[in-house]
Structures are given as structure tokens and as C-alpha cells.
From TrEMBL:
InterPro entries: Bud32, Kinase-like_dom_sf, Prot_kinase_dom, Tyr_kinase_AS. Residues 18-240 form the Protein kinase domain. SMART domains: S_TKc. The lineage of its organism: Eukaryota, Metazoa, Echinodermata, Eleutherozoa, Echinozoa. One of its GO terms (cellular component) is EKC/KEOPS complex. It comes from Strongylocentrotus purpuratus (Purple sea urchin). This is non-specific serine/threonine protein kinase. It catalyses: L-threonyl-[protein] + ATP = O-phospho-L-threonyl-[protein] + ADP + H(+); L-seryl-[protein] + ATP = O-phospho-L-seryl-[protein] + ADP + H(+). Keywords: ATP-binding, Kinase, Nucleotide-binding, Serine/threonine-protein kinase, Transferase, tRNA processing. The keyword ATP-binding applies. GO terms for molecular function: ATP binding; protein serine/threonine kinase activity. Belongs to the protein kinase superfamily. BUD32 family.
Amino acid sequence: MASAVTCDQATLEGDTSQSKLTLLKQGAEARIYLSTFMGRSSIVKQRFKKSYRHPKLDAKLSQKRTGQEVRTIVKCRKAGITTPVVYFVDNDTHSIHMEYIEDSLTVREYIQQIQNSGESNDDERLVSLASKVGTTLASMHNVDIIHGDLTTSNMLLRQPYEDSRLIMIDFGLSQISHMSEDKGVDLYVLERAFLSSHPNTEELFKTVLDVYAENYKKSGEVLKKLEEVRQRGRKRVMLG
Ligand SMILES: Nc1ncnc2c1ncn2[C@@H]1O[C@H](COP(=O)(O)OP(=O)(O)O)[C@@H](O)[C@H]1O
Ligand SMILES: [Mg+2]
């Protein structure tokens, strides 16, 4: 469950109002704070300064990723793909105020929970999840959205998890492209993340790809590209 990892009160970098926020998650590029926006629970995702980057380049990159994240969220929602609602964007502090998906689990946490539970319907729950992932990827690629950082931590499920739609997040590296190569790489990134985060899920990932293929009419070309990207990956490993 997405609970506050710390109750430390923090202030948003560059925010002159100095309002106190609770840090929920600390990532490599961004911090996620719990907040409220016009009476609703919200999160603030702030891309913080990286001291090893030139300040101008750093600000430019943060602005670009913040802008891309918001644009793609809007495009997803228009296409019926579930994402948090964006409430407000602050370009001065490179922060996005958006809907807080309360009582949610990342797909990563959800799979781990099932793999540790040992209940009789575990397989059924995993297949149903794989099917959600496959259809959601198909819907995204159908409107040329390349996520750019597909992992099981960038997908959320709301309670009750079995009934929840997949909620896609973290679009800072996204792009719009009709190229099968880009879509193949998107799937490859997820495949690598999936198989390295979750042991013994090869069959499950096959189900993701089968459902993707059933729901996306140009999937043949993309899956061909996926195979090419895999082979390049293998060659790279062999050459060291
Ligand atoms: N709208 C949200 N509601 C609830 N939890 C969220 C939300 N957005 C992000 N999170 C949590 O914060 C984590 C990091 O957010 P993310 O946007 O993926 O940033 P990062 O670029 O650091 O990976 C997610 O994996 C999820 O656990
Ligand atoms: Mg993320």
C-alpha cells in the first residue's frame, strides 16, 4: 500500500510559500509529496535539482520532462487510458500536482503479494493482471504513445485490486511515435524489468504479449521488432 515512508515535513525546492508537505517517495529524479489540492488528496511530483548537471541544462531537462509527462497524461486520458488527473503544473518548481491514488499498490507490489500468498486463485489473479497490462499497452500503442519507462512500478492498481483498471504513471520519458521500432523497444524495456523484478514470470509475460497482439492490429510488426531488439541485446551480452 502506498503509505508515507517518512513523516518528515519537507518544503518544495524553490517554493516561496514554504508550505509543509509529507514526503511519500524519493526517486532518482523526482520526489513525491503528499498534499491536498482544493480539498482533494493530491500528490506533488517534483523533479529536483541535480548538482552534477549544469544548472541551465538541468532546468531545461526538468522542464522538458515535466511538460512531456503532463502532455502524455492528457493524451492518455483522451484515449481512455487511466492515469491520475493533473490538477496543476508549476513550471517554476518543475512540479506537477495530481490526483493521489489512495489505497493503491504498484503492480510490482501486487505481483509480489500474490507470489507470497500461496492461495488457490493466485494463477487466475496473475493471468487477469497480465491481460490488463496487455490491453493497456495495446491502447497506448494504438494512439502512438510510447511510455519510455515501462516497469511494474509505473503501473498502479486501486483497491479492490481485482476490479481496478490499470493506472499508468511516470510519463517523463514518453514520446509520440508511430514507429514499430519504438514500440518494440517499449515492450523490451518492460520485458527486462518484468523478468528481473519477478522470478518465474516468463509464461505470464507471454500472456501480456498475447493479449497485446489480440488487441493491437499493428502488433505483428512490433513483435518482429521486439525480437530484433532482443537479439541485439543478446549479442551485446555475448560481446561483453
Ligand atoms: N498519483 C499517485 N498516487 C499514488 N502513488 C503515486 C502516484 N504517483 C506516484 N506514486 C508513487 O510514487 C512512486 C514514484 O512515482 P513516479 O511517478 O514513478 O516517479 P519516479 O520517476 O521517481 O519513478 C510510484 O512508483 C508510486 O508508488
Ligand atoms: Mg517511476
